[in-house]
Amino acid sequence: MLKTTNNSILKNRIAPICFVGVLLFTSCKKDKAADGIDKELFDLAKATTGFVWYKNSDTLLEKSAGSSHAEPFLKTRYNTLAATQLDSMGKVKSDAVFPEGSLVVKELFDNATTIGRYAVLYKKAASESADANGWVWGYINSDGTVAESATKKGSSCINCHSQSNNIEYTLMNKYFP
Ligand code: HEC
Predict the structure, then answer these.
(1) I need a surface site. Which of 40, 66, 118, 151 has the fewest CB within 10 A?
(2) Which stretches of the chain score pLDDT less than 50?
């Protein structure tokens, strides 16, 4: 009798501990520190000089209805090479073909001041992680952990970014005309 009681006390204590342990383990596993191509994209995304903002404005935009991202605000910038495909209003030209080396960084904000994550499009056809069109898809948390590795070649991104009225897989023009 005493034995049974002890056992059930033990079970009640241990089960929750194991559960928390499993949660910690899986979350650590999911968001590990960026290395390789993800680290490269993180460093490229964090640099801020030489970029042009979408519509020439760094005002935070409220996420569009088409966005699957959790963060409520965003703003998007283009490095010098990518900016060659913007018109004078700072919108992507309708016939844009982004040259090799183009970098498009969408900063995703948790609130008005804090960047939670970077979503990145990097034209680098030579990369092992490039998709069939030469784009590398990066998704990195602002603490340097990986939300979705670029080695997956945008497998969770491309479908949505291939929707009607994309411009070379970019969607800013469609949702922020
Ligand atoms: C369900 C649709 C959807 C999915 C999935 C998605 N995106 Fe997006 N993405 C958007 C929309 C819509 C925009 C336009 C801005 C906004 O509303 O967030 C956008 C904008 C972007 C931009 C800014 C450049 C532009 O004009 O498109 C980048 C970079 C980007 N996404 C990267 C990614 C990456 C990397 C993934 C996968 C890890 C991804 N997206 C998955 C819908 C999606």
Answers:
(1) 66
(2) 1-5, 9-10, 16-28
pLDDT in tens, 97-136: 999 999 999 999 999 999 999 999 999 999 999 999 999 9
What token pair was written down for 30? 């999911």
Q: Comparing C-alpha atoms, which of 77, 62, 157, 125 is closest to residue 86?
A: 77
Taking the C-alpha atoms of residue 44 and residue 119, their distance in angstroms, rounded to an integer, is 11
What residue's CA is closest to ligand 1, atom 29?
120
The Cβ-side half-sphere exposure at 151, using a 13 Å CA radius, reads: 8
Both tokens assigned to 68 = 């699957």
Amino acid letter, 160: C
> How many angstroms is it from 83 CA to the middle of ligand 1?
18
Burial class (CB in 10 A: 0-12, 13-18, 19+), 142: middle
Measured CA distances, 110 to 102, 104, 141 (Å): 26, 20, 11
* Distance in Å, CA 21 to ligand 1 centroid: 33
